[in-house]
Design goal:
This protein is α/β, with parallel strands linked by helices and 320 residues long. It has a single domain, classed as Carbon-nitrogen hydrolase (Nitrilase/N-carbamoyl-D-aminoacid amidohydrolase), CATH 3.60.110. It contains 8 helices and 14 strands. The strands form 3 sheets. The protein has a 6-stranded mixed β-sheet with strand order 5-4-3-2-1-14, covered by helices on one side. The chain has a 6-stranded mixed β-sheet with strand order 6-7-8-9-12-13, covered by helices on one side. A two-stranded antiparallel ribbon has the order 10-11. Helix 1 links the parallel strand 1 and strand 2. The relative contact order is 0.16. The structure holds D-[(amino)carbonyl]phenylalanine. The site of D-[(amino)carbonyl]phenylalanine has 9 residues, from loops.
Length: 320
């Protein structure tokens, strides 16, 4: 029994600050068409795919940054992408900056089915970086100034013949992200990312950017028996070298396809969703092997507590 879905990680090269959004949408449509020619049914685009990664700049008045946000999805500028996808009967996942009608700012991803219905919208849970002006950095990472953390957590939706989840960029570094979806039976997670290679707080990590990217997603995929489709916005964007290496990862943890450029590139793979069960009904049969009664710290604590484990009375005596 197999349940294949052909997916594409639609990697983008840099988007310049002054690149007109219609031009960016044209690039997305071209990637959609290339993916369709490759047989893709689901195309995953990067985080904040419509614009340059604007959180790299400090703006005294955050309202000035609203111009980078979408107030409708689809809106006048993105309708062409939705229309082309509907014409090609291809689904997609698109990352964008969302400004809601009641004034909330989220780093969001929308999942659209092959019949053009909107399956769901995910709002990034783990917001990295900083909120204050830190001009000591060669470039800033002000996501915590411009985005609110998503209030909804991680969902899993019935779509594309399986159970589809979403995560955005920094979410992929946290094991809870995958486990919360794994506990909902996720079979394929769509992920977009914008990852500067230089990490100003700890530059020793720079050389490991690609390793850490693959490490967290391969581990998350394997430990939860799910596919992961990850699409980067890579290359040197406004002077910031950003990790590419978009990839598709199997429930085994194997990378089955990977980008080799840092430009617009379509990474294709046929994902057998039934392969998930080879892990979720064996080594990671959660219901049989997990011990949630011993994991309470994971939801009870945010940070580390250095309380010492009480030693049982009489312990420490040399064994007779
Ligand atoms: N970008 C980065 C990411 O998590 C980052 C931020 C880079 C955090 C390197 C830690 C180390 O890939 C976004 N947009 O989350």
């Amino acid at each position: 029994m197999t349940r294949p879905v052909v997916v594409a990680a639609a990697q983008m090269g840099p988007v310049a600050r002054d690149e007109p959004r219609p031009r960016v949408v044209d690039r997305l449509i071209e990637l959609l068409r290339r993916a369709h020619r490759g047989g893709a049914e689901l195309v995953v685009f990067p985080e904040l795919a419509l614009t340059t990664f604007f959180p790299r700049w400090w703006e005294e008045d955050p309202a000035q940054m609203d111009a980078w946000f979408e107030t409708e999805m689809p809106g006048p500028l993105t309708k062409a992408l939705f229309d082309e996808a509907a014409r090609l009967e291809i689904g997609f996942c698109l990352g964008y900056a969302e400004l809601t009608p009641d004034g909330h700012h989220f780093n969001s991803q929308i999942l659209v089915e092959r019949d053009a219905t909107v399956v769901g919208v995910f709002r990034k849970v783990h917001i990295p970086g900083h909120a204050g002006n830190e001009p000591w950095r060669p470039f800033q990472h002000l996501e915590r100034r411009y985005f609110e953390p998503g209030p909804d957590g991680f969902g899993v939706w019935p779509a594309f013949g399986g159970r589809i989840g979403m995560m955005i960029c920094n979410d992929r570094r946290w094991p809870e992200t995958y486990r919360v979806m794994g506990l909902q039976g996720v079979e394929l997670i769509c992920c977009g990312y914008n990852t500067p290679i230089h990490y100003a707080p700890e530059p020793s990590q720079d050389v490991l950017a690609g390793f850490h990217n693959a490490l967290v997603m391969q581990a998350g995929a394997y430990q939860n028996g799910t596919w992961v489709v990850a699409a980067a916005k890579g290359g040197v964007e406004e002077g910031v070298d950003s990790l590419a290496q978009s990839c598709v990862i199997a429930p085994s943890g194997q990378i089955v396809a990977q980008a080799y450029t840092a430009a617009d590139e379509v990474v294709l793979a046929s994902c057998d969703l039934d392969w998930c069960q080879r892990y979720t009904t064996t080594v990671f049969d959660f219901d049989q092997y997990r011990r949630p009664e011993l994991y309470t710290r994971i939801t009870a604590q945010r940070g580390v507590l250095l309380e010492d484990v009480p030693t049982p009375a009489g312990s420490g005596e040399p064994c007779p």
